[in-house]
C-alpha cells in the first residue's frame, strides 16, 4: 500500500493539489458545498491511480481542490462504501491520500436515519461516538504498522476541540444540532423493525452505512476528525414506513445548507 499511496500522491501533486489544510468528505445527497468553493483543480476518481470509483448514482466521484473561507481544502465529492463491493482498505484509501497531501483536519458528513425518536428528519447530529457494526476494521491487514500504530486508541475518536466549535456555531446561528452516537452498518438494505430496536438498545442515536471506517483511519493517522449526520428519516420500529430513497436524498439536500453553514464557520476557526 505504501507504494500505491506514493504513486497516487505524486499524481495529485503534479495536478496541483498542493498543501491542503483541511479535507472534507461529502456524504449521500450532500454535494452543494462545492458551490461555495473557489475551485482550483478537480479530478474524476477514475483518473486517479489506485483510487476506487464511486458506483452509487448520487455520489459524483470527484476529488476537488480549492479555497474555502481562505483555507486550502481538498474535498471528496462522493465517498465509497463496503456495500459497493469495496474492502475497508479501499473505502479509507482517500483518507490516507489526503493526509499524505498534508491535511491537518478532516471533516465528514453523512446522511443517516434517526434512531433516537427525539431527533427529527431534517435536523443534524454531531457525532460524539460510534458503534462499528460493519464486521471488520480498516486496520486489519498485514503491514498496517508501517502506516501507524496497529493498536489505535479509540477512546475519543471525534475531536473535542472541533466539536466544541461546531456546538458554539450552532448556538450562534440558532441551528438545531443534536449530539449522539452513530452506528455504522454494512447495508445496502435498510434495517428491519427488530434491528432498529436493537440499535436503540445498544445506545445508537442514528444509523448509516459509512463514516466509521474513515474515522478509524483518521485516528490511526493522528488526524483530528469531526463528523455531522444529516438526519433524513425517522426510524420508529412501531410506526415504520417503507423507505423511499428519493425522499431521503431530497431531505438531505433540503437540510444541507445548514450543514454548509456549520462547515464554513468552523473552517474559519481552524
Automatic annotation (TrEMBL):
Gene3D superfamilies: Nucleoside phosphorylase domain. Pfam families: PNP_UDP_1. Its EC number is 2.4.2.1. Keywords: Glycosyltransferase, Transferase. Pathway: Purine metabolism; purine nucleoside salvage. Residues 22-268 form the Nucleoside phosphorylase domain. One of its GO terms (molecular function) is purine-nucleoside phosphorylase activity. It is an enzyme of class 2 (transferase). InterPro entries: Nucleoside_phosphorylase_d, Nucleoside_phosphorylase_sf, Pur_Nuc_Pase_Ino/Guo-sp, Purine_phosphorylase. The keyword Transferase applies. The purine nucleoside phosphorylases catalyze the phosphorolytic breakdown of the N-glycosidic bond in the beta-(deoxy)ribonucleoside molecules, with the formation of the corresponding free purine bases and pentose-1-phosphate. NCBIfam families: PNPH, PNPH-PUNA-XAPA, PRK08202.1. Belongs to the PNP/MTAP phosphorylase family. This is Purine nucleoside phosphorylase.
Amino acid at each position: 500500500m505504501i507504494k500505491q499511496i506514493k504513486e497516487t500522491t505524486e499524481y495529485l501533486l503534479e495536478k496541483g493539489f498542493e498543501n491542503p489544510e483541511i479535507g472534507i468528505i461529502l456524504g449521500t445527497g450532500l454535494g452543494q458545498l462545492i458551490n461555495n468553493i473557489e475551485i482550483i483543480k478537480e479530478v474524476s476518481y477514475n483518473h486517479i491511480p489506485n483510487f476506487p470509483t464511486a458506483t452509487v448514482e448520487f455520489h459524483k466521484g470527484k476529488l476537488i481542490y480549492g479555497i474555502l473561507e481562505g483555507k486550502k481544502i481538498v474535498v471528496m465529492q462522493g465517498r465509497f462504501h463496503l456495500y459497493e463491493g469495496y474492502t475497508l482498505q479501499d473505502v479509507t484509501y482517500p483518507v490516507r491520500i489526503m493526509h499524505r497531501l498534508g491535511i491537518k483536519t478532516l471533516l465528514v458528513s453523512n446522511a443517516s436515519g434517526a434512531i433516537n425518536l427525539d431527533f427529527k428528519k431534517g435536523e443534524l447530529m454531531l457525532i460524539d461516538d460510534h458503534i462499528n457494526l460493519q464486521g471488520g476494521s480498516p486496520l486489519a491487514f498485514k503491514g498496517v504498522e508501517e502506516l501507524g500504530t496497529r493498536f489505535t486508541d479509540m477512546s475519543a475518536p471525534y475531536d473535542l476541540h472541533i466539536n466544541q466549535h461546531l456546538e458554539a456555531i450552532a448556538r450562534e446561528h440558532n441551528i438545531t444540532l443534536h449530539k449522539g452516537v452513530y452506528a455504522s452498518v454494512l447495508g445496502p438494505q435498510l434495517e428491519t423493525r427488530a434491528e432498529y430496536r436493537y440499535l436503540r438498545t445498544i445506545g445508537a442515536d442514528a444509523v448509516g452505512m459509512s463514516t466509521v471506517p474513515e474515522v478509524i483511519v483518521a485516528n490511526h493517522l493522528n488526524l483530528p476528525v469531526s463528523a455531522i449526520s444529516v438526519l433524513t428519516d425517522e426510524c420508529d420500529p412501531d410506526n415504520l414506513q417503507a423507505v423511499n430513497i428519493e425522499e431521503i436524498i431530497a431531505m438531505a439536500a433540503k437540510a444541507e445548507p445548514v450543514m454548509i453553514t456549520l462547515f464554513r464557520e468552523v473552517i474559519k476557526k481552524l
